[in-house]
Amino acid sequence: xxxxxxxxxxxxxxxxxxxxxxxxxxxxxxxxxxxxxxxxxxxxxxxxxxxxxxxxxxxxxxxxxxxxxxxxxxxxxxxxxxxxxxxxxxxxxxxxxxxxxxxxxxxxxxxxxxxxxxxxxxxxxxxxxxxxxxxxxxxxxxxxxxxxxxxxxxxxxxxxxxxxxxxxxxxxxxxxxxxxxxxxxxxxxxxxxxxxxxxxxxxxxxxxxxxxxxxxxxxxxxxxxxxxxxxxxxxxxxxxxxxxxxxxxxxxxxxxxxxxxxxxxxxxxxxxxxxxxxxxxxxxxxxxxxxxxxxxxxxxxxxxxxxxxxxxxxxxxxxxxxxxxxxxxxxxxxxxxxxxxxxxxxxxxxxxxxxxxxxxxxxxxxxxxxxxxxxxxxxxxxxxxxxxxxxxxxxxxxxxxxxxxxxxxxxxxxxxxxxxxxxxxxxxxxxxxxxxxxxxxxxxxxxxxxxxxxxxxxxx
Length: 460
Description:
This protein is an alpha/beta fold.
């Protein structure tokens, strides 16, 4: 992984090129204080300080140059990232001093996933020196968490099966004093029947399992973090077309978010009793596949009629939610690449937020705004629970029609969460379909920073 700590350094007065961060309304006043050579360079490059605009500025000598970057009225984590791709290697000092969020964008703009390249492209290092020394470590940790999500999601399914998710959780727990437990085989089949049913068609080396991590003081509030870990989703017997299967390596994106968030919680030593759960499966096709029309028992005894084997994520999450609730948590957050319907409604950038607790939802939306990691709340519209009715079982796993797919999926999960336990469900895409400054095409943490900011405010 990129050495982010080397790219964000405290300002000790070391030599550095100045990076002027300007809003459009500030440009004229700033120009009046600049020498003629700078004003001429700004005019020649038609720099107007619009968000993302960039200009190189001459100094007194050949090596004494500066640069300017346009910012929006309310800068976020990615607004300084456009400069990174345009600046040569070197050390830079921003003026005015940047907020920690901007430092995050500076770091992540230099992250690369090059595990599968025979000859990785050498990347110039751009070092940013900052005055807010107290926030450097926190910014680096957050960048590492986002990069971890990206790397796990970008890894192809051939190298990211259930056992590899176990290894990722073990690595996240390393050095933190956490206890890791893996349930598989007969114990999984008997204790977590829906996790087992979804994953049982896979080969033996990709057998399903439930990964659990426990950390922290038992006297602290209990926090459960759950991540959907479908390492590849063929759709099962309701098989996806090839176009729908192309990106299904990212169907463990919820697990990647959960593992990265758990690492953040432990590294910051947040005063919580952490319980992370990742149901890890591959939804494969074989004679052992669960079938449309099957009725599955869940861990808490609720029976589920299978209307669609491609609605498998909610099944494994239901068993994980039941397990989490056995610990009597004060708060549950789950991440899942759950429905295409959420993407149709909100597009790739906005995770859909569902919650049974208005106060928790408000805290998450406020944290999303503060962190520059947007969320959009959708309703747990109870009348739509009728769409999940089954003639034979307690509930069906999928509605018959095309309406409100993200809502009905969340309502299915809500069936396994009792009133009185605050719960938030993030239906996230975990993917950038097109590259943007600081965010390459591929795996992406969407919702991670917002949830972390909420947790930091609540418990930090």
